[in-house]
Amino acid sequence: MRGESHMPMNENIRKPRVIVSSVGTSLLTNILESDERSLWAARINATANLREEDIDSETRAFLVILAERARKRLKEGDIRDRRRRSAELNGIYGIYHGKIPDEAKQDLHFLIQTDTYQGSLTATLLKDFLKDANLNAEVVIPQKLNTNSTGEFNKGIRELIERCHTRLTPLKESGYRIFFNLVGGFKALQGYMNTIGMFYADRIYYIFEGSDNMINIPKLPVRVDSSVLKPHAALLAMMSVGNPLCSAHQVKGILGAGVLFEVDSNGDAMISPSGMLIWEQVKEEIFLEGLLEFPGIEYSSEFRKDFNSAQKEEKIGLQEALAKVASLLAHSGGDIAVLKADNGLQLESYQDRRDEEGLPIMKFRYNKGMRVSCVKKGDNLLMRKFDHHDKVNDNP
Fold this sequence. Notes:
Layout: E1 17-22, H1 26-29, H2 34-46, H3 57-76, H4 79-85, H5 87-95, E2 108-112, H6 117-132, E3 136-140, H7 150-173, E4 177-181, H8 187-200, E5 203-207, E6 214-218, H9 226-229, H10 233-241, E7 246-247, H11 248-251, H12 257-260, E8 261-263, E9 268-271, H13 273-289, E10 297-299, H14 301-308, H15 312-332, H16 337-341, E11 348-354, E12 360-365, E13 370-377, E14 380-388, H17 389-394
Parallel strand pairs: 1-2, 1-4, 2-3, 4-5, 10-14
Antiparallel strand pairs: 5-6, 7-9, 8-9, 11-12, 12-13, 13-14
């Protein structure tokens, strides 16, 4: 009997890709006819950072005309014409070496849209074009992501970082390669996307202006030392889900405060986009080590046992929910009404359920299936148990 031939596995098998593209407005401006530029180019640039309701009706109507014209040109044009008109497609075609292959059908395209009207028009055009080419495309719209003001832009960047961590990390762990296509987009967004890419992307792609030649930058071996952040983990966790919690003076002595925090016009400190990016790299490790000591929150021994026996994702979700509870309580001066009003937590009291001291037992949720029971004890909220909702409801 002839022995089997053990062929080595092909190490060059193409892995599926996630291509994250920053989206600008080149598709609209590059579709202008020569006789339209003198009248419309300046008006389009002046409204690039505005939402739909903030743009005058005449300019809005003309932008719709441009969008429909762009849609037609993308459909009827050849690859060279598409690359010339759209910076984003120029990058995508460049990553695919000039032509979209059949294997690209397994790839995922995330289009990072600014929270603006022109961003919405452009991202929708690109999504529809990619879908018509049988590719998987999704528009990602971080709220407040526009360059109309520094405050709004930074809020948008913080949300973008959170979404990158939530979406890209599990995809990378499941075998996808992560590519950042930064050929399009506003310069301010590109700058942050480049930094974010150093943590999440396998490669970052650019193209020289006026060229089809790709430049790719490999991921740097960046690792954050979590031990530096552990003493301030509760504060960072609360800031990552809430509003400013303390003054600039209170964070001044923290190592790396200039990077981790930013100060608003009222002198209040909040987590900076860079701080958010750093926190996202270490929070899961810190969350899994043990319950954080949040202000205004206490834990029963039973609750600590529940935490210790919980699964990884349950522990992470619980700590994020506790950070949100602590942040809301800090802002309200301990008033639990804010927890009842929060659409995610939905704090409510059990009917005729009291603890050993006669205090009313309440519960809140941190996802669809999990519940936390608690009581208001003095100025603090005492966490009693957490588990699947049926188990907590049966014995809160």
